[in-house]
Design brief:
Length: 102
């Protein structure tokens, strides 16, 4: 008979993506260019808002994605589906349960 052990899993996920806003300001920097004998100007645009808040308004977090997958599994299982894309839906639903954000 196999023994059961409780474990706590912690993982860090990283994703590079884009968010969109019109709430910005322009920054201009001036540097002296010795070879040109004058000043060179560069400009960039920076947001005037909290980017993490903007992300949460425009995209799903990893936990929200897991919760959506769990809902999809639940719906498909209630419709009698057992597998989708070669994935066992009951197993996937079980894997999606009980994740928490810290």
């Amino acid at each position: 008979m196999e023994n059961e052990f409780e474990v706590t899993v912690s993982q860090t996920l990283v994703k590079t993506t884009s968010v969109f806003t019109d709430n910005v300001h322009q920054c201009v920097e001036r540097d002296y260019d010795a070879t040109a004998g004058g000043y060179a100007y560069t400009s960039s645009v920076e947001p005037d808002c909290d980017l993490s808040e903007l992300f949460s308004e425009q995209q799903r977090s990893a936990l929200e994605i897991i919760q959506c997958c769990e809902q999809i599994c639940k719906q498909l299982l209630s419709e009698g589906r057992r597998r989708c894309a070669k994935v066992d839906l009951a197993d996937l639903r079980h894997d999606c349960e009980y994740w928490e954000e810290e």
